[in-house]
Amino acid sequence: MTTRPEPAGQLWASIDIGSNSFRLELARLSGERYQRVSYIKESVRLGAGLDAEGMLTEAAMQRGLNCLKGFGAQLAGIPPERVRAVATQTLREARNRNAFLARAQAVLGHPVEVIAGREEARLIYAGVARLQPSDKPRLVIDIGGRSTEMILGTGRKAVLAESYSVGSVGLSMRFFGDGRYTEEAFRAAQVAAGAELEEGLTLFRPELWKEALGSSGTAGAVSQVLAASGQTDGRITPAALRWCINQCLAAGSQDKLQLPGMKDDRRPVVAGGLCILYTLLTQFGIDELLPTKGALRQGVIFDLAERLQPSGARDPRADAVKQLQQRFSVDQAQADRVAAKAEKLYRQLVPKPLAEPLRELRWAAALHEIGMLVSHHDHHRHSAYILGHADAPGFSTNQLQRLATLALGQRGGLRKLEAQLGETGLLEQLIALRLAVILCHARTVPPSVPTLERAGRRLTLRSPRNWSNKQARTRFLLKEEAEAWARGDLLELIVS
Protein backbone atom coordinates (compact mmCIF):
# COMPACT_ATOMS: atom_id res chain seq x y z
CA MET A 1 0.00 0.00 0.00
CA THR A 2 1.07 3.56 -0.63
CA THR A 3 2.39 5.35 2.43
CA ARG A 4 0.95 8.82 2.74
CA PRO A 5 3.05 11.77 3.86
CA GLU A 6 2.47 13.67 7.09
CA PRO A 7 1.01 15.86 8.44
CA ALA A 8 -2.42 14.26 8.17
CA GLY A 9 -4.44 17.01 9.84
CA GLN A 10 -5.12 18.86 6.60
CA LEU A 11 -5.96 15.78 4.54
CA TRP A 12 -9.38 14.65 3.37
CA ALA A 13 -10.23 10.98 2.93
CA SER A 14 -12.95 9.13 1.08
CA ILE A 15 -13.57 5.40 0.96
CA ASP A 16 -15.70 4.05 -1.90
CA ILE A 17 -16.99 0.58 -1.03
CA GLY A 18 -18.06 -0.58 -4.46
CA SER A 19 -19.44 -3.85 -5.74
CA ASN A 20 -16.24 -4.70 -7.60
CA SER A 21 -13.48 -2.58 -6.05
CA PHE A 22 -12.84 -0.73 -2.79
CA ARG A 23 -11.04 2.60 -3.20
CA LEU A 24 -9.33 4.96 -0.77
CA GLU A 25 -8.46 8.51 -1.81
CA LEU A 26 -6.47 10.96 0.31
CA ALA A 27 -6.34 14.53 -0.92
CA ARG A 28 -5.69 18.15 -0.05
CA LEU A 29 -8.03 21.00 -0.94
CA SER A 30 -6.95 24.60 -1.34
CA GLY A 31 -9.68 26.79 -2.78
CA GLU A 32 -10.50 25.30 -6.16
CA ARG A 33 -7.29 23.26 -6.23
CA TYR A 34 -7.51 19.53 -5.63
CA GLN A 35 -4.31 17.60 -4.95
CA ARG A 36 -4.39 13.83 -4.71
CA VAL A 37 -1.98 12.62 -2.04
CA SER A 38 -2.64 8.90 -2.21
CA TYR A 39 -4.94 6.50 -4.05
CA ILE A 40 -5.40 2.82 -3.27
CA LYS A 41 -7.66 0.47 -5.18
CA GLU A 42 -8.26 -3.17 -4.28
CA SER A 43 -10.36 -5.66 -6.21
CA VAL A 44 -12.68 -7.12 -3.56
CA ARG A 45 -15.64 -8.23 -5.73
CA LEU A 46 -18.06 -7.83 -2.85
CA GLY A 47 -20.96 -8.04 -5.30
CA ALA A 48 -19.90 -11.52 -6.37
CA GLY A 49 -20.53 -12.64 -2.80
CA LEU A 50 -24.24 -11.81 -2.84
CA ASP A 51 -26.11 -15.12 -2.85
CA ALA A 52 -29.53 -16.01 -4.26
CA GLU A 53 -31.21 -14.99 -0.99
CA GLY A 54 -29.61 -11.54 -1.07
CA MET A 55 -27.15 -12.36 1.70
CA LEU A 56 -23.46 -11.53 1.66
CA THR A 57 -21.38 -14.65 2.18
CA GLU A 58 -18.90 -14.75 5.02
CA ALA A 59 -16.05 -15.11 2.51
CA ALA A 60 -17.09 -11.93 0.69
CA MET A 61 -17.49 -10.04 3.95
CA GLN A 62 -14.06 -11.17 5.08
CA ARG A 63 -12.47 -9.96 1.83
CA GLY A 64 -14.07 -6.57 2.41
CA LEU A 65 -13.08 -6.40 6.07
CA ASN A 66 -9.45 -7.29 5.31
CA CYS A 67 -9.32 -4.47 2.78
CA LEU A 68 -10.95 -1.95 5.13
CA LYS A 69 -8.54 -2.88 7.91
CA GLY A 70 -5.68 -1.88 5.63
CA PHE A 71 -7.45 1.33 4.68
CA GLY A 72 -7.98 2.15 8.36
CA ALA A 73 -4.24 2.10 8.96
CA GLN A 74 -3.88 4.87 6.37
CA LEU A 75 -6.33 7.18 8.17
CA ALA A 76 -4.36 7.73 11.38
CA GLY A 77 -4.21 11.40 12.32
CA ILE A 78 -6.92 12.57 9.92
CA PRO A 79 -9.73 14.31 11.84
CA PRO A 80 -12.87 12.13 11.82
CA GLU A 81 -14.98 14.90 10.30
CA ARG A 82 -12.68 14.85 7.24
CA VAL A 83 -13.24 11.13 6.59
CA ARG A 84 -16.26 9.62 4.90
CA ALA A 85 -16.85 6.04 3.80
CA VAL A 86 -19.75 5.30 1.46
CA ALA A 87 -21.13 2.01 0.17
CA THR A 88 -23.13 1.48 -2.99
CA GLN A 89 -25.34 -1.09 -4.74
CA THR A 90 -24.21 -4.35 -3.15
CA LEU A 91 -24.86 -3.04 0.33
CA ARG A 92 -28.07 -1.41 -0.84
CA GLU A 93 -29.21 -4.93 -1.77
CA ALA A 94 -27.67 -7.09 0.96
CA ARG A 95 -30.19 -8.25 3.53
CA ASN A 96 -27.45 -8.73 6.13
CA ARG A 97 -25.81 -5.38 5.45
CA ASN A 98 -26.17 -4.14 9.04
CA ALA A 99 -24.04 -7.00 10.31
CA PHE A 100 -21.34 -6.17 7.78
CA LEU A 101 -21.56 -2.42 8.49
CA ALA A 102 -20.99 -2.96 12.21
CA ARG A 103 -17.92 -5.10 11.54
CA ALA A 104 -16.69 -2.66 8.90
CA GLN A 105 -16.85 0.27 11.31
CA ALA A 106 -14.88 -1.72 13.87
CA VAL A 107 -11.97 -2.47 11.51
CA LEU A 108 -12.00 0.85 9.63
CA GLY A 109 -12.42 3.03 12.69
CA HIS A 110 -15.12 5.11 10.98
CA PRO A 111 -18.80 4.53 10.20
CA VAL A 112 -19.78 3.35 6.73
CA GLU A 113 -22.79 5.03 5.12
CA VAL A 114 -24.91 3.32 2.50
CA ILE A 115 -25.99 5.84 -0.13
CA ALA A 116 -28.98 5.60 -2.45
CA GLY A 117 -28.49 5.28 -6.20
CA ARG A 118 -29.47 8.84 -7.02
CA GLU A 119 -27.21 10.15 -4.27
CA GLU A 120 -24.36 8.08 -5.69
CA ALA A 121 -25.07 9.62 -9.10
CA ARG A 122 -25.09 13.14 -7.66
CA LEU A 123 -21.73 12.60 -5.97
CA ILE A 124 -20.22 11.12 -9.14
CA TYR A 125 -21.24 14.24 -11.05
CA ALA A 126 -19.80 16.44 -8.28
CA GLY A 127 -16.42 14.76 -8.74
CA VAL A 128 -16.51 15.05 -12.53
CA ALA A 129 -17.74 18.66 -12.57
CA ARG A 130 -14.99 19.88 -10.24
CA LEU A 131 -12.07 18.00 -11.80
CA GLN A 132 -13.13 18.47 -15.42
CA PRO A 133 -15.10 21.74 -15.53
CA SER A 134 -17.19 22.72 -18.54
CA ASP A 135 -20.23 24.84 -19.33
CA LYS A 136 -21.50 22.35 -21.90
CA PRO A 137 -24.61 20.29 -21.09
CA ARG A 138 -23.22 16.85 -20.28
CA LEU A 139 -24.21 13.25 -19.91
CA VAL A 140 -22.05 11.46 -17.34
CA ILE A 141 -22.16 7.66 -17.12
CA ASP A 142 -20.63 5.46 -14.44
CA ILE A 143 -20.87 1.68 -14.79
CA GLY A 144 -20.21 0.00 -11.47
CA GLY A 145 -20.26 -3.59 -10.37
CA ARG A 146 -24.00 -3.85 -9.75
CA SER A 147 -25.44 -0.51 -10.87
CA THR A 148 -25.10 2.08 -13.61
CA GLU A 149 -25.50 5.78 -12.86
CA MET A 150 -26.51 8.35 -15.49
CA ILE A 151 -26.48 12.09 -14.85
CA LEU A 152 -27.38 15.15 -16.89
CA GLY A 153 -25.75 18.36 -15.76
CA THR A 154 -24.44 21.76 -16.68
CA GLY A 155 -21.48 23.32 -14.92
CA ARG A 156 -21.51 22.03 -11.36
CA LYS A 157 -25.24 21.42 -11.21
CA ALA A 158 -26.66 17.94 -11.72
CA VAL A 159 -30.04 18.47 -13.37
CA LEU A 160 -31.14 14.83 -13.45
CA ALA A 161 -29.57 11.82 -11.74
CA GLU A 162 -30.71 8.21 -12.02
CA SER A 163 -29.37 4.82 -11.02
CA TYR A 164 -30.15 1.53 -12.77
CA SER A 165 -29.66 -1.91 -11.25
CA VAL A 166 -27.33 -3.36 -13.86
CA GLY A 167 -23.56 -3.54 -13.51
CA SER A 168 -20.49 -5.33 -14.78
CA VAL A 169 -20.26 -7.84 -11.91
CA GLY A 170 -23.92 -8.82 -11.86
CA LEU A 171 -24.21 -9.10 -15.65
CA SER A 172 -20.95 -11.06 -15.98
CA MET A 173 -21.99 -13.53 -13.27
CA ARG A 174 -25.40 -14.03 -14.88
CA PHE A 175 -24.37 -14.52 -18.51
CA PHE A 176 -20.65 -15.37 -18.39
CA GLY A 177 -20.46 -17.16 -15.05
CA ASP A 178 -18.76 -20.19 -16.58
CA GLY A 179 -16.04 -18.01 -18.12
CA ARG A 180 -17.10 -18.86 -21.70
CA TYR A 181 -17.74 -16.22 -24.37
CA THR A 182 -20.40 -16.98 -26.98
CA GLU A 183 -22.43 -14.84 -29.36
CA GLU A 184 -25.61 -16.05 -27.66
CA ALA A 185 -24.37 -14.95 -24.25
CA PHE A 186 -23.37 -11.51 -25.53
CA ARG A 187 -26.75 -11.02 -27.22
CA ALA A 188 -28.66 -12.15 -24.12
CA ALA A 189 -26.58 -9.88 -21.85
CA GLN A 190 -27.20 -6.87 -24.11
CA VAL A 191 -30.95 -7.53 -24.11
CA ALA A 192 -30.96 -7.77 -20.32
CA ALA A 193 -28.96 -4.54 -20.00
CA GLY A 194 -31.25 -2.80 -22.47
CA ALA A 195 -34.36 -3.89 -20.57
CA GLU A 196 -33.03 -2.28 -17.40
CA LEU A 197 -31.79 0.92 -19.09
CA GLU A 198 -34.70 1.42 -21.48
CA GLU A 199 -36.72 3.60 -19.11
CA GLY A 200 -33.97 6.22 -19.37
CA LEU A 201 -34.19 6.61 -23.16
CA THR A 202 -36.36 9.74 -23.08
CA LEU A 203 -34.79 11.15 -19.91
CA PHE A 204 -31.27 11.15 -21.40
CA ARG A 205 -32.06 11.68 -25.08
CA PRO A 206 -29.23 13.14 -27.23
CA GLU A 207 -30.72 16.62 -27.69
CA LEU A 208 -30.32 17.27 -23.95
CA TRP A 209 -26.51 17.06 -23.89
CA LYS A 210 -23.48 18.09 -25.97
CA GLU A 211 -20.87 15.62 -24.71
CA ALA A 212 -20.92 12.23 -23.03
CA LEU A 213 -18.37 11.30 -20.38
CA GLY A 214 -17.54 7.92 -18.85
CA SER A 215 -16.45 7.93 -15.23
CA SER A 216 -14.39 5.41 -13.27
CA GLY A 217 -14.36 1.57 -13.43
CA THR A 218 -15.63 0.05 -16.65
CA ALA A 219 -15.27 3.14 -18.84
CA GLY A 220 -11.73 3.74 -17.64
CA ALA A 221 -10.67 0.13 -18.16
CA VAL A 222 -12.11 -0.09 -21.68
CA SER A 223 -10.60 3.28 -22.59
CA GLN A 224 -7.16 2.00 -21.57
CA VAL A 225 -7.60 -1.13 -23.69
CA LEU A 226 -8.60 0.91 -26.75
CA ALA A 227 -5.67 3.28 -26.35
CA ALA A 228 -3.15 0.48 -25.73
CA SER A 229 -4.38 -1.49 -28.78
CA GLY A 230 -4.35 1.58 -31.03
CA GLN A 231 -8.07 1.29 -31.80
CA THR A 232 -8.73 4.85 -30.61
CA ASP A 233 -6.99 7.49 -28.54
CA GLY A 234 -9.03 6.29 -25.56
CA ARG A 235 -12.43 7.40 -26.85
CA ILE A 236 -15.09 4.72 -26.61
CA THR A 237 -17.12 4.29 -29.81
CA PRO A 238 -19.60 1.64 -30.99
CA ALA A 239 -17.09 0.37 -33.56
CA ALA A 240 -14.34 0.12 -30.95
CA LEU A 241 -16.65 -1.79 -28.61
CA ARG A 242 -17.53 -4.23 -31.40
CA TRP A 243 -13.80 -4.83 -31.80
CA CYS A 244 -13.50 -5.59 -28.07
CA ILE A 245 -16.44 -7.98 -28.18
CA ASN A 246 -14.98 -9.73 -31.23
CA GLN A 247 -11.70 -10.18 -29.34
CA CYS A 248 -13.64 -11.86 -26.52
CA LEU A 249 -15.42 -14.15 -28.98
CA ALA A 250 -12.17 -15.03 -30.71
CA ALA A 251 -10.60 -15.96 -27.36
CA GLY A 252 -13.65 -18.05 -26.48
CA SER A 253 -13.12 -17.83 -22.74
CA GLN A 254 -12.07 -15.52 -19.98
CA ASP A 255 -8.89 -17.49 -19.29
CA LYS A 256 -7.64 -17.10 -22.87
CA LEU A 257 -8.57 -13.44 -23.29
CA GLN A 258 -5.60 -11.16 -23.85
CA LEU A 259 -6.43 -7.49 -24.33
CA PRO A 260 -3.66 -4.88 -24.32
CA GLY A 261 -3.84 -2.59 -21.30
CA MET A 262 -6.37 -4.73 -19.40
CA LYS A 263 -5.48 -5.56 -15.81
CA ASP A 264 -6.10 -9.03 -14.43
CA ASP A 265 -8.67 -7.85 -11.87
CA ARG A 266 -10.86 -6.56 -14.72
CA ARG A 267 -10.89 -9.86 -16.62
CA PRO A 268 -13.78 -11.54 -14.70
CA VAL A 269 -16.16 -8.60 -15.30
CA VAL A 270 -15.09 -7.19 -18.67
CA ALA A 271 -17.73 -9.02 -20.73
CA GLY A 272 -20.62 -7.65 -18.70
CA GLY A 273 -19.12 -4.17 -18.80
CA LEU A 274 -18.73 -4.28 -22.58
CA CYS A 275 -22.38 -5.32 -22.99
CA ILE A 276 -23.59 -2.41 -20.89
CA LEU A 277 -21.35 0.06 -22.71
CA TYR A 278 -22.41 -1.18 -26.13
CA THR A 279 -26.09 -1.03 -25.16
CA LEU A 280 -25.71 2.51 -23.85
CA LEU A 281 -23.88 3.84 -26.90
CA THR A 282 -26.17 2.24 -29.47
CA GLN A 283 -29.47 2.83 -27.69
CA PHE A 284 -28.81 6.35 -26.39
CA GLY A 285 -27.26 7.72 -29.57
CA ILE A 286 -23.79 8.21 -28.12
CA ASP A 287 -21.24 8.46 -30.94
CA GLU A 288 -18.32 8.60 -28.52
CA LEU A 289 -17.87 8.35 -24.78
CA LEU A 290 -14.91 10.27 -23.42
CA PRO A 291 -13.06 8.98 -20.35
CA THR A 292 -13.14 11.57 -17.61
CA LYS A 293 -11.31 12.60 -14.51
CA GLY A 294 -13.46 12.62 -11.43
CA ALA A 295 -15.56 9.93 -9.83
CA LEU A 296 -17.53 9.10 -6.72
CA ARG A 297 -14.55 9.21 -4.37
CA GLN A 298 -13.65 12.80 -5.31
CA GLY A 299 -17.29 13.86 -5.20
CA VAL A 300 -17.48 12.56 -1.64
CA ILE A 301 -14.54 14.75 -0.62
CA PHE A 302 -15.93 17.87 -2.31
CA ASP A 303 -19.34 17.29 -0.73
CA LEU A 304 -17.79 16.71 2.70
CA ALA A 305 -15.80 19.95 2.45
CA GLU A 306 -18.95 21.90 1.58
CA ARG A 307 -20.77 20.42 4.57
CA LEU A 308 -18.08 21.75 6.88
CA GLN A 309 -18.40 25.34 5.67
CA PRO A 310 -19.01 27.49 8.78
CA SER A 311 -22.45 28.66 7.65
CA GLY A 312 -23.50 25.28 6.29
CA ALA A 313 -25.10 27.21 3.44
CA ARG A 314 -23.63 24.93 0.79
CA ASP A 315 -24.75 21.71 2.48
CA PRO A 316 -27.08 20.06 -0.08
CA ARG A 317 -29.01 18.44 2.75
CA ALA A 318 -30.42 21.81 3.81
CA ASP A 319 -31.88 22.29 0.33
CA ALA A 320 -33.23 18.74 0.37
CA VAL A 321 -35.08 19.42 3.63
CA LYS A 322 -36.65 22.57 2.19
CA GLN A 323 -37.73 20.71 -0.93
CA LEU A 324 -39.35 17.96 1.15
CA GLN A 325 -41.17 20.57 3.23
CA GLN A 326 -42.55 22.17 0.09
CA ARG A 327 -43.47 18.86 -1.57
CA PHE A 328 -45.42 17.68 1.48
CA SER A 329 -46.95 21.06 2.38
CA VAL A 330 -45.38 21.19 5.84
CA ASP A 331 -46.60 23.87 8.23
CA GLN A 332 -43.37 25.85 8.15
CA ALA A 333 -44.17 28.00 11.19
CA GLN A 334 -44.88 24.95 13.34
CA ALA A 335 -41.76 23.18 12.12
CA ASP A 336 -39.69 26.23 13.04
CA ARG A 337 -41.29 26.42 16.51
CA VAL A 338 -40.59 22.77 17.23
CA ALA A 339 -37.03 23.03 15.88
CA ALA A 340 -36.23 26.04 18.08
CA LYS A 341 -37.60 24.41 21.23
CA ALA A 342 -35.96 21.07 20.47
CA GLU A 343 -32.57 22.70 20.03
CA LYS A 344 -32.91 24.61 23.30
CA LEU A 345 -33.80 21.44 25.20
CA TYR A 346 -31.06 19.43 23.50
CA ARG A 347 -28.43 21.98 24.51
CA GLN A 348 -29.53 21.52 28.12
CA LEU A 349 -29.00 17.76 27.78
CA VAL A 350 -25.77 18.08 25.80
CA PRO A 351 -24.03 21.33 26.81
CA LYS A 352 -21.40 21.12 24.05
CA PRO A 353 -23.24 19.45 21.18
CA LEU A 354 -21.50 18.34 18.01
CA ALA A 355 -22.67 20.06 14.86
CA GLU A 356 -23.96 16.96 13.06
CA PRO A 357 -26.35 15.63 15.76
CA LEU A 358 -27.69 19.15 16.18
CA ARG A 359 -28.35 19.41 12.43
CA GLU A 360 -30.09 16.04 12.49
CA LEU A 361 -32.36 17.20 15.29
CA ARG A 362 -33.27 20.40 13.43
CA TRP A 363 -33.99 18.41 10.25
CA ALA A 364 -36.11 15.89 12.15
CA ALA A 365 -38.11 18.76 13.62
CA ALA A 366 -38.42 20.42 10.22
CA LEU A 367 -39.83 17.22 8.73
CA HIS A 368 -41.66 15.59 11.63
CA GLU A 369 -45.07 16.41 10.16
CA ILE A 370 -44.56 15.51 6.49
CA GLY A 371 -46.83 12.51 7.04
CA MET A 372 -49.74 14.91 7.62
CA LEU A 373 -50.23 15.05 3.86
CA VAL A 374 -51.05 11.33 3.91
CA SER A 375 -53.23 11.31 7.00
CA HIS A 376 -53.57 13.27 10.22
CA HIS A 377 -54.18 10.00 12.06
CA ASP A 378 -50.87 8.37 13.00
CA HIS A 379 -49.03 10.96 10.93
CA HIS A 380 -45.80 10.11 12.75
CA ARG A 381 -45.83 6.65 11.17
CA HIS A 382 -46.38 8.13 7.72
CA SER A 383 -43.60 10.66 8.34
CA ALA A 384 -41.24 7.86 9.33
CA TYR A 385 -42.07 5.82 6.22
CA ILE A 386 -41.58 8.77 3.87
CA LEU A 387 -38.25 9.74 5.43
CA GLY A 388 -37.02 6.16 5.43
CA HIS A 389 -37.72 5.77 1.71
CA ALA A 390 -37.08 9.25 0.30
CA ASP A 391 -34.45 10.26 -2.23
CA ALA A 392 -32.93 13.29 -0.54
CA PRO A 393 -29.72 14.78 -2.01
CA GLY A 394 -26.83 14.77 0.44
CA PHE A 395 -28.31 12.21 2.82
CA SER A 396 -27.14 8.64 3.19
CA THR A 397 -29.71 5.93 3.74
CA ASN A 398 -28.29 5.54 7.27
CA GLN A 399 -28.99 9.16 8.13
CA LEU A 400 -32.44 9.15 6.56
CA GLN A 401 -33.25 6.09 8.66
CA ARG A 402 -32.13 8.01 11.75
CA LEU A 403 -34.46 10.88 10.86
CA ALA A 404 -37.22 8.34 10.25
CA THR A 405 -36.64 6.86 13.71
CA LEU A 406 -36.92 10.31 15.29
CA ALA A 407 -40.11 11.03 13.34
CA LEU A 408 -41.61 7.70 14.42
CA GLY A 409 -40.68 8.37 18.04
CA GLN A 410 -42.01 11.93 18.21
CA ARG A 411 -45.18 10.69 19.95
CA GLY A 412 -46.77 7.55 21.33
CA GLY A 413 -45.23 4.57 23.07
CA LEU A 414 -41.50 3.99 23.20
CA ARG A 415 -41.43 0.22 22.99
CA LYS A 416 -41.30 0.40 19.19
CA LEU A 417 -37.91 2.11 19.44
CA GLU A 418 -36.19 0.06 22.13
CA ALA A 419 -33.76 -1.55 19.70
CA GLN A 420 -32.66 1.76 18.16
CA LEU A 421 -32.35 3.88 21.30
CA GLY A 422 -29.01 2.35 22.13
CA GLU A 423 -27.49 4.24 19.18
CA THR A 424 -25.09 7.02 20.10
CA GLY A 425 -26.88 10.29 20.81
CA LEU A 426 -30.28 9.16 19.52
CA LEU A 427 -31.86 9.08 22.98
CA GLU A 428 -31.03 12.73 23.70
CA GLN A 429 -32.30 13.80 20.27
CA LEU A 430 -35.56 11.92 20.80
CA ILE A 431 -36.18 13.38 24.26
CA ALA A 432 -35.67 16.91 22.93
CA LEU A 433 -37.97 16.34 19.96
CA ARG A 434 -40.78 14.71 21.96
CA LEU A 435 -40.80 17.44 24.58
CA ALA A 436 -40.67 20.17 21.91
CA VAL A 437 -43.67 18.65 20.11
CA ILE A 438 -45.62 18.67 23.39
CA LEU A 439 -44.66 22.23 24.28
CA CYS A 440 -45.74 23.43 20.82
CA HIS A 441 -48.86 21.24 20.60
CA ALA A 442 -51.17 24.29 20.46
CA ARG A 443 -49.27 25.44 17.34
CA THR A 444 -48.30 28.69 19.07
CA VAL A 445 -45.10 29.85 20.71
CA PRO A 446 -45.17 28.71 24.37
CA PRO A 447 -44.75 31.58 26.85
CA SER A 448 -41.53 30.04 28.15
CA VAL A 449 -39.74 26.71 28.05
CA PRO A 450 -39.19 24.44 31.05
CA THR A 451 -35.62 23.68 32.04
CA LEU A 452 -34.28 20.17 31.72
CA GLU A 453 -31.79 18.74 34.23
CA ARG A 454 -30.08 15.39 34.00
CA ALA A 455 -28.56 13.21 36.67
CA GLY A 456 -27.66 9.81 35.27
CA ARG A 457 -30.87 8.08 34.20
CA ARG A 458 -33.07 10.71 35.87
CA LEU A 459 -34.37 13.72 33.97
CA THR A 460 -36.16 16.55 35.75
CA LEU A 461 -38.31 18.95 33.77
CA ARG A 462 -38.92 22.11 35.80
CA SER A 463 -41.83 24.27 34.72
CA PRO A 464 -41.35 28.05 34.73
CA ARG A 465 -42.87 29.87 37.68
CA ASN A 466 -44.92 32.08 35.36
CA TRP A 467 -46.86 29.11 34.02
CA SER A 468 -50.51 29.64 34.89
CA ASN A 469 -53.63 27.52 34.66
CA LYS A 470 -53.58 28.20 30.93
CA GLN A 471 -50.80 25.62 30.69
CA ALA A 472 -52.93 22.90 32.31
CA ARG A 473 -53.21 20.98 29.04
CA THR A 474 -49.46 21.14 28.52
CA ARG A 475 -48.91 19.87 32.10
CA PHE A 476 -51.29 17.01 31.39
CA LEU A 477 -49.39 16.00 28.25
CA LEU A 478 -46.07 16.23 30.08
CA LYS A 479 -47.43 13.96 32.81
CA GLU A 480 -48.43 11.42 30.13
CA GLU A 481 -44.92 11.71 28.70
CA ALA A 482 -43.39 10.90 32.09
CA GLU A 483 -45.63 7.84 32.31
CA ALA A 484 -44.52 6.71 28.84
CA TRP A 485 -40.86 6.77 29.91
CA ALA A 486 -41.73 5.04 33.19
CA ARG A 487 -42.94 1.99 31.24
CA GLY A 488 -39.40 1.35 30.02
CA ASP A 489 -35.95 1.03 31.51
CA LEU A 490 -34.14 3.77 29.61
CA LEU A 491 -34.67 6.71 31.95
CA GLU A 492 -36.98 8.33 34.49
CA LEU A 493 -38.66 11.63 33.62
CA ILE A 494 -39.89 13.78 36.49
CA VAL A 495 -42.13 16.75 35.74
CA SER A 496 -42.14 19.39 38.45
Describe the 3D structure.
With 496 residues, this protein is α/β, with parallel strands linked by helices. It is built from 17 helices and 13 strands. The strands form three sheets. The chain has a five-stranded mixed sheet, sandwiched between helices. Strands 8-7-6-9-10 form a five-stranded mixed sheet, sandwiched between helices. Helix 17 links the parallel strand 12 and strand 13. It is elongated and about 85 Å long. It starts with 11 loop residues before the first strand and ends with a strand. The mean pLDDT is 93.
User: What portion of the residues fall into strands of 2 or more residues?
Assistant: 15-25%
For the largest beta sheet, what order do the strands appear in spatially? 3-2-1-4-5
Low-confidence stretches: none
- How far apart the termini lie comes to 60 Å
Q: Count all strands and give the number.
A: 13
Structural class, from secondary structure content? alpha/beta
| Rg for CA atoms | 25 Å
Largest sheet: 5 strands, mixed
Tertiary shape: elongated
Protein name: Ppx/GppA phosphatase family protein
List the helices and strands and how they pair.
Elements lengths: L11 E6 L3 E10 L2 E11 L14 H16 L9 E5 L1 H5 L3 H12 L3 E3 L2 H15 L5 E7 L4 E7 L2 E8 L3 H8 L7 H15 L13 E5 L1 H13 L8 H14 L18 H14 L6 E3 L3 H12 L8 H12 L4 H18 L5 H13 L11 H11 L7 H12 L17 H14 L11 E5 L2 E5 L9 H15 L5 E4 L1
Parallel strand pairs: 1-4, 4-5, 6-9, 9-10, 12-13
Antiparallel strand pairs: 1-2, 2-3, 6-7, 7-8, 11-12
Helix pairs in contact: 1-3, 4-10, 5-6, 5-9, 6-9, 8-9, 12-13, 12-16, 13-15, 13-16, 14-15, 16-17
Organism: Roseateles hydrophilus
Protein name: Ppx/GppA phosphatase family protein
